Amino acid sequence: MKIRTKLVSSFCACIIVMLAILGSIIYLTFEEGIYNDRQEIFSLKAANTAKAFNAAIEKEIDIFGQSHKEAFAGKSKPSLQSGFHRCEGANGIRLFSEVSVISPDGNIRTICSQLPDGKSTAIALQVAARNIAPNTPQFVMLPDGLYLLYPDSNDRSSALLIAAKIEKDELRKLLGSLNEVKDSLLVVSSGSQTFLNLATSKSSQDLVDIYPKEMQQQRIGRKKEQIKLPALIVCDNNVLGLKLTHVVSREFLLHDLVKLKNRIVSAIILIGWMSIWVVLIIAHRLSRPIIKLSKATNDIVTFGNDEKLDFIATGDEVGMLAQNFETMRLKILELIAKDPLTDTYNRRYLMHILEQETARALREHEALSCIMFDMDHFKAINDTYGHPAGDEVLAELGRRLKLHTRIYDTVARFGGEEFVVLSPGIGQDDARSIAERIRVSLENDPMEWQGLKIHNTISAGIASIDEAIVNSTEKLIVCADRALYMAKRSGRNQTVIYEADHDSPGDSA
User: How many CB atoms lie within 10 A of CB 122?
Assistant: First the structure.
């Protein structure tokens, strides 16, 4: 795995883990508070609904409650009925379908409509009223419906009982207009009997069936084989003995938490995406110099080390590494490609360049000449002046070779006192001009060493690429060497161009 991939993978993994932990901390921090706040709001709205319902009931009780004595005081029935008809809410809702006044002896004075089953219903209502505090209205559930009872006196023997039957559809309308809890199921019950289920939305309609099953499941205990039902939140309020139960799903309270979770997830994705790009940019900036260093290292191995390492001095560790590597590259260049005595290229580097230039010249049908020089009577110089003088003569020859050749020619020490100049793009005649210019320079301008003038000459052999004869690196070197041999055998201090009819060179002189 490349270092850039490692950096990106590691940084991205760390960022994603950190964002996930941060998001979890934020969510868990607000989860309990938001849930409790929503539950408290739910309870307050349910209580407000109960208060509004209680106020509506008391308002209507005040209207017809004053008429019950008039029913036994000889007032006409129409006047009592007009009082009943005034018992309508602001929305025209008539909650009571019938209102009757029952005396202690069971006599019934009907204000509107007629009690079903007459006497038996009146007796049942009187029995139910025994548990009701005097002058206190209260709802009572009988088999035939829901009633609102109102005993008017502390004296049971003389107390009159007002009984008003509740109309289910009208009660549904009234509670629907007063209910403040949206997406809820409102269950109206008295004791253990349910009188009305009111769903405020389409989604809460499902709670009509779920609610009793959930309550039953809670009573008998949860078992693995039982169907898992949605968790429900229940809030009870009593209004005049009537229980109003608001039921909502847990998702209703978690609505804000879901929004918070979605926002956190969106923020994590956005920040994570931005962080990945930041990591990619950082990884690119970190790895780019390393990639360049790797390429430069490969170039050194393949002798392609003439191009300067391109890097920006950032001042950090990577910049210092690149700067030190450039210094090292130059040192390596001197070690592996240069001859330390003559400051020309060595034989190994020459053969590498020679292979490239030969292949290119043959491929593109261009000229390529190889000039091989050899110092005449070099052994005599060493014997006469000593090896230090011989070294200085070789170094001076290297300097003059570079002085009289082009910048893109390759000057190399082939071995001992032999040198090679590789000249791409020129033929035999131009190569001969270069060789002669160098030979004449040495012949006319003696070298100096410690105040002594050392006269010496050189011989040169030239071979050029010829697709029919000289068509490989080995042949180019061999042919140049044969031409050099011919120059030395012909009297030295001259330049010879290789021709196909030259004899085998044998040993050089």
Answer: 19
Phi, psi of 110 (to 5 degrees): -85, 125
Which uninterrupted H or E stretch holds 481?
helix 473-489
Output the six-digit token pair for 251: 């998702």
Q: What is the pLDDT of residue 357?
A: 92
Beta partners for residue 187, in sequence order: 197, 245
CA distances from 501 to 469, 487, 494, 507 (A): 11, 15, 19, 18
pLDDT value for 85? 46
CA–CA separation, 465 vs 498, rounded Å?
Answer: 11
- Rounded Cα distance between 490 and 484, Å, is 10
Q: Locate all alpha helices (DSSP H) within 221-346, ordered by sequence.
A: 250-253, 255-301, 317-337
Low-confidence residues of the chain: pLDDT under 70: 1-8, 27, 31, 63-92, 106-118, 153-159, 213-230, 253-257, 286, 289, 299-319, 501-509
Identify which of 482, 452, 499 has the alpha carbon closest to the alpha carbon of residue 374: 482
Q: Residues 296, 472, 343, CA angle at the centre, nearest 5°? A: 45
Domain enclosing residue 429, as ranges: 338-497
Residues 459 and 357 reside in one and the same domain: yes
> Same domain for 152 and 191?
no
* The predicted structure's pLDDT at residue 87: 46
Under 8 Å between Cβ of 299 and 330: no
Which amino acid is residue 82, in one-letter code?
Answer: S
- One domain for residues 348 and 206: no
Neighbour tally for 398: CB within 10 Å: 20
Sign of the dihedral through C-alpha 301, 305, 307, 310: positive
Say if strands 185-190 and 193-199 run parallel, antiparallel, or are unpaired. antiparallel
Residues constituting the chain: 509
198: three-class secondary structure by DSSP: strand
Residues 71 and 142 in one domain: yes
Residues 400 and 483 in one domain: yes
How far apart are alpha carbons 12 and 136 in whole angstroms?
Answer: 71
Q: What separation in angstroms does the CA of 389 have from each of 111, 455, 457?
A: 147, 12, 15
Query: How far apart are the C-alpha atoms of 354 and 189, rounded to whole Å?
Result: 106
Angstrom distance (rounded) from CA 404 to CA 442: 11
Query: Can you give the pTM of this predicted structure?
Result: 0.47
pLDDT tens for each residue of 75-132: 444 444 444 444 444 456 777 777 777 777 766 666 544 445 567 777 788 777 777 7
Read off the DSSP letter of residue 338.
B
Residue-wise pLDDT tens digits, 471-492:
889 999 999 999 999 999 999 9
Only one residue has tokens 């804000």, namely 256
